[in-house]
Amino acid sequence: MSHDVKNIMLILSSPSGAGKTTITKKIQQKYQSFKISVSHTTREPRSNEINGIDYNFVSHEEFKRLIDEKQFYEYAKIFDNYYGTLKKTVDDLIKKNDVIFDIDWQGTKQLSQFKNLNLVKIYLLPPNKDELKKRLIKRDSDSLIEVEKRFKSFDEDVTHWQDYDYVLINENLETCYKQIEKIIANHKREFSNFSQIIQ
Ligand code: 5GP
Question: How many CB atoms within 10 Å of residue 174?
Answer without folding.
Answer: 8
